[in-house]
Amino acid sequence: MINIDRSDDIFYRYKMSPLIIRQQGRNGQLILVNIDEIAKQLSVDSIKLVKFISYELGTKSGNTNNQWWIKAEQPTVSILQEIISKFIDNFILCKQCGNPETTISNHLTMKCASCGHRVKLVRPEDNGSVDKILKMYKK
Question: How far, in Å, CA of 62 to CA of 54, rounded?
Fold first, then answer.
């Protein structure tokens, strides 16, 4: 298990599983084996996490037979884990206290259950991936 905030604190209580991937066939399809488990540990819908990964890589994603996949030319687990960390920084961790006890309303307001901090999430002009995921929260 790794700390959600990527710290080295052995007593940090918010943990998630490291990503496991499996190559499927020769067409560059990667199965995200435990993405549902990671999404549950982050308290977020799997589709938002998978879509963010695919937007960051500029590729397709989908779900076949209850398995999430992305079309990608050999991204390493460490690259995919960094993309998940970017998702965590943008949508999970509180901007004030750093705890992952946040919820995002359909008005794009992030509220922390730990410290009570509220912040309006703005749609950045320089990051299309974040913007697309914010649109998913708005629905």
Answer: 9
Q: How far is CA 40 from CA 15, 33, 35, in A?
A: 11, 14, 9
DSSP helix/strand/coil, 4: coil
Q: Which residue has the tokens 């937007």?
A: 55
Give backbone dihedrals phi and psi of 74, rounded to 5 degrees, phi first.
50, 55
DSSP 3-state of 74: coil
User: How confident is the model over 22-60, as pLDDT tens digits?
Assistant: 888 777 789 999 999 999 999 999 999 999 999 999 899
Cβ-Cβ contacts under 8 Å for 32 (sequence gap 6 or more): 19, 20, 21, 50, 53, 67, 68, 69, 70, 80
Residue with tokens 């390493």: 76
Domains recognised in the chain with CATH numbers: 2-138 (3.30.30.170)
